[in-house]
Every structure is written in structure tokens, then in C-alpha cells.
């Protein structure tokens, strides 16, 4: 089986990019998109050509390292599925794929399909954490958390930070990502003491690196963790809450 790949090639972030077309032989329907790229790179290296650069790590849909744009859609044609878990058998009629990096102003191209997503890291550095008193670890049941609360927190903590939501948004917004972090920590007692400071820090970083929310909801359609759109609403709600509490202090 053969498949035609149109791959974006770009030597570095300041270099002009272009599409190059390759025919990849030996493809099977059980292969994932990244395995097709592996096979392409084996053929390129064997021919003495430069392989296509792309990001990947666990290839189990957990780490969030992978992320490419396939035929104009972040991650690929299968909704809510990371690139590493999109297999050719899921779109069997496809004989040609157009592969690009995740397209967003906040994600400059490093090389080919690999992009710099450190803007997401800056959101976490700004407020996606809690301050705790170090020392001997407390017992697991020292502070009880209700089942429903724990489940809600875990749902939003499931965000893997892949950046597909940013690439899917026409405005390059990261509200789904940031809202997931805000709600995850706001649900749990150890994150509530810094809730206002966290909201101000995260929303400030959002305004600096990302665009405004488009309100179309494309982000939720590509999110591998199925993060609910409630996370988007949480960004403004947490920001307003932080402003009102500061005014009343």
C-alpha cells in the first residue's frame, strides 16, 4: 500500500517554508500517522535526504508531545484523538495527506512539523501550581475530598497540554487549556488559598501570548482529553471573581 504525503519543510523559524511531496511505500492500515512519518523518514534517510522533524514521545495519547495538522485539522480527521492514536484504518479511503505544523502565532516553527509550545509552559509558570509546606508527606486521607469534587477536578486535570485547542481556534486562544488548569486547582482545597492570585496571573499571561476566545468551540472538538467548554467559561468567571474579591479586601 502506498500513500502520498505533502509535508511542510522548514529549516528553522526564520526560513521560508514549502510543501514537499513524497510517496511512502509499505504503508498498512494499522499504522498511525506518526508511524507513517517514521516510515517516510526511513526512506528519506536511506536515500541520503534530511528526515522530516516532528515531535513525539510516549505515543500513547498521554504526554501531549505529538501534534501536527492533518488536512487542515489539528491532530487529524478523527475528533478528540491525538496524532499518535490516529490510524489509517480510521479513514481508509484516504490516499493523500497534507501534513503541517500546528498553526498558531504563539507556536513558532522550530523545524518542519515541530513547533515551540513554550507559551503554554509560561501559563503554568504564571499560576498553574500550588504552594505547599514541604516536609513529611501527609496521610492520603488527612483531608477528605468528596467523590464528585474529585471527579470534576480529575476531568479538568486530564488536559495533556498538546496545544491543539490553540491551533484550532481562529484567534489562537488558549482558554480551554488555561480554564482546565484554573478549574482543576479551584476544585481542591489545597488550591483555593491562591485562587485569586492564580486567576490574575494566568489570565494576564493569556493576554500576553494568546488571542481572545473566538466562542466557536473548535477547541473542544479537537481536544484529546475531551475537556468541557466549561473550562473556557471559567477563565472570565475566575478573573471576575478575583477582581471582585480584591476590591472587597
UniProtKB/TrEMBL annotation:
<comment type="similarity">
    <text>Belongs to the succinate dehydrogenase/fumarate reductase iron-sulfur protein family.</text>
</comment>
<keyword id="KW-0001">2Fe-2S</keyword>
<dbReference type="Pfam" id="PF12838">
    <property type="entry name" value="Fer4_7"/>
</dbReference>
<keyword id="KW-0479">Metal-binding</keyword>
<keyword id="KW-0816">Tricarboxylic acid cycle</keyword>
<feature type="domain" description="4Fe-4S ferredoxin-type">
    <location>
        <begin position="150"/>
        <end position="179"/>
    </location>
</feature>
<dbReference type="InterPro" id="IPR009051">
    <property type="entry name" value="Helical_ferredxn"/>
</dbReference>
<keyword id="KW-0408">Iron</keyword>
<dbReference type="InterPro" id="IPR050573">
    <property type="entry name" value="SDH/FRD_Iron-Sulfur"/>
</dbReference>
<protein>
    <recommendedName>
        <fullName>succinate dehydrogenase</fullName>
        <ecNumber>1.3.5.1</ecNumber>
    </recommendedName>
</protein>
<dbReference type="InterPro" id="IPR004489">
    <property type="entry name" value="Succ_DH/fum_Rdtase_Fe-S"/>
</dbReference>
<dbReference type="InterPro" id="IPR036010">
    <property type="entry name" value="2Fe-2S_ferredoxin-like_sf"/>
</dbReference>
<keyword id="KW-0004">4Fe-4S</keyword>
<dbReference type="InterPro" id="IPR012675">
    <property type="entry name" value="Beta-grasp_dom_sf"/>
</dbReference>
<dbReference type="InterPro" id="IPR017896">
    <property type="entry name" value="4Fe4S_Fe-S-bd"/>
</dbReference>
<keyword id="KW-0003">3Fe-4S</keyword>
<dbReference type="InterPro" id="IPR006058">
    <property type="entry name" value="2Fe2S_fd_BS"/>
</dbReference>
<keyword id="KW-0411">Iron-sulfur</keyword>
<dbReference type="Pfam" id="PF13085">
    <property type="entry name" value="Fer2_3"/>
</dbReference>
<dbReference type="InterPro" id="IPR017900">
    <property type="entry name" value="4Fe4S_Fe_S_CS"/>
</dbReference>
<keyword id="KW-0560">Oxidoreductase</keyword>
<dbReference type="InterPro" id="IPR025192">
    <property type="entry name" value="Succ_DH/fum_Rdtase_N"/>
</dbReference>
Amino acid at each position: 500500500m502506498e500513500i502520498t504525503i505533502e509535508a511542510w519543510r522548514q529549516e528553522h523559524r526564520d526560513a521560508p517554508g514549502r510543501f514537499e511531496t513524497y510517496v511512502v511505500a509499505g504503508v498498512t492500515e494499522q499504522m498511525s500517522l506518526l508511524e507513517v512519518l517514521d516510515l517516510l523518514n526511513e526512506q528519506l534517510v536511506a536515500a541520503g535526504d534530511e528526515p522530516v522533524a516532528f515531535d513525539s514521545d510516549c505515543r500513547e495519547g498521554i504526554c501531549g508531545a505529538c501534534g501536527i495538522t492533518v488536512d487542515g485539522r489539528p491532530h487529524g480527521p478523527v475528533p478528540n484523538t491525538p496524532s499518535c492514536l490516529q490510524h489509517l484504518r480510521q479513514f481508509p479511503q484516504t490516499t493523500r495527506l497534507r501534513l503541517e505544523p500546528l498553526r498558531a502565532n504563539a507556536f513558532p516553527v522550530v523545524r518542519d512539523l515541530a513547533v515551540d509550545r513554550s507559551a503554554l509552559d509560561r501559563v503554568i509558570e504564571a499560576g498553574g501550581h500550588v504552594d505547599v509546606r514541604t516536609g513529611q508527606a501527609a496521610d492520603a486521607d488527612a483531608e477528605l475530598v468528596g467523590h464528585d469534587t474529585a471527579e470534576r477536578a480529575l476531568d479538568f486535570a486530564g488536559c495533556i497540554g498538546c496545544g491543539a485547542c490553540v491551533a484550532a481556534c481562529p484567534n489562537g486562544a488558549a482558554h480551554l487549556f488555561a480554564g482546565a488548569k484554573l478549574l482543576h486547582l479551584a476544585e481542591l482545597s489545597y488550591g483555593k488559598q491562591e485562587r485569586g492570585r492564580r486567576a490574575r496571573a494566568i489570565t494576564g499571561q493569556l493576554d500576553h501570548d494568546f488571542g481572545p476566545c473566538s466562542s466557536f468551540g473548535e477547541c473542544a472538538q479537537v481536544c484529546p482529553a475531551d475537556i468541557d467548554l466549561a473550562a473556557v467559561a471559567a477563565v472570565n468567571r475566575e478573573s471576575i471573581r478575583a477582581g471582585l474579591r480584591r476590591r472587597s479586601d
